[in-house]
## 1
Amino acid sequence: MANYIKNIRVQKQLSQYTVADKLGISQNSYWLLENGHTKITMEHIAGFSVVFNVDCKQLLTDFFEQI
């Protein structure tokens, strides 16, 4: 999931800092999420869906279709 989130962020041309700020976390905390050092929770996924302007269900569906 971490790599999938990173790919979306890069495709949308957003910096780690920008996404972290919108999620209300530090850039370092976001880096830990994106690099698999911190588990991604449903709360994070809900936040990603808002930041990336993608329906939460679609975000998960697209992820599971890739694995």
## 2
Amino acid sequence: MLLYDKDLLSVQEVRELVEHAKTAQKELAEKTQAQVDQIVKSIADAGVRNAKRLGQLAHDETGFGIASDKVIKNIFGSKGVYERIKDMKTVGVIKRDEAAGTYAVAVPVGVIAGLIPSTNPTSTVFYKAEIAIKAGNAIVFSPHPNALKCILETVKVIRQAIVEAGGHEDLVSCISLPTIQSTDVLMSHPDTSLILATGGSAMVRAAYSSGTPAIGVGPGNGPAYIERSADIHKAVKCIMDSKTFDNGTICASEQSVICDDDMKEAVQNEMKKQGAYFLNEQEREQLGNFILRSNGTMNPMIVGKSVQVIAELAGLSVPKDIRVLVAEETGVGRGHPYSNEKLAPILGFYTAPDYRKVCERCCEVLYYEGAGHTFIIHTENQEIVDYFAHRVPVSRFVVNSPGALGGIGASTGLMPALTLGCGAVGGSATSENVGPEQLYNLRYVAVGKKSLEEIRREAGEIELKPEAVNLDAKQIDEVVRRIINQLEAI
């Protein structure tokens, strides 16, 4: 029987892809660490070779971001990730505890479902393919429909690189007919062992409700605090560089700037010098009505667009050399659009009386949206760092670095990643920058150390020592009497 219905065809495709991936993964599980590493290296090298072409393809297809920045992200997602994971031991015994008599064996989870967003499509494919294979798994991608062509082309490059390194090309594959049904089937397929979800909140919620173990991430909405000890020029440069990198499509980028009340003028003047445009009250309201939809979610029309495009869409007139649009904000939540995540060169601007009130405001912003994700601070005061580090509900706390690049591990020592866990506070299964270590299980082998008789004897010794349980002789007599009564009742 021939199938013509797109939904049915996509579901059938998923079933075949998972079946082939399962076969390829079993073959990979028999390879040595050196053989696995060679496959990952081949993918990384292919990523560098094709970074420019795929970056341009992603930009042309999605209309998001800046092509040259997407090239950098492709190199980061391939070579940058590889350099961090290349020496990780992920095959066989990976740790021992001689004193405890235990050791742990890495066990691949199997077939992973990889959900790919349209904001960072090609770079995320390289990154997820590398960490999945490094951990001994196969991965089947569900692409965002708006980035289908560039994702398929990236997968083609990766499959060729795998074959060149002696691996099975079906270790990495991709749905070519993406539908809601195909993604649902991929996530709930009995041979799908784990979902690695990067995308919108709705997609992540679907992953967690699929019945399959999932690692998903929530929205970013990171505030950036310029504290009074900071070099204002350097701090503003970091923020502007971060917010304009690929037109703000990285979720760890700054979404608002906050400073003490008495620093407001100095910070705003420096931001203006570096290309920020502060909206007047009418412009602020006009853009605010455009950047969010009626249901309170971000308008996709602003995502990854330049200031000039956004201004034109919103009916604003701004100078041509403006890099970032800034709106002063006084509240958080519905009715305060600049307190939301904005994956575009748009910032909210807050002030507060002192660092304690700043911390309260930052927590308020994050609990409204972005809990568990990223916070950025510019300061030379370690005590201030410690104060905020103990209070703000985030998994990434970036100090004196651009939020976008610092959060993903490009300008900091964090694990290079494009899937950023938000921990329990953000509804995520992990708070880590996701790497190979989150994509395998550990099988613990434990040698017997005690017999049952020894355990009973030790337990008895503890019961008979009054000081061990902090009881006096009269209390012990009462406990013994109760035990005897219970035994007689039996």
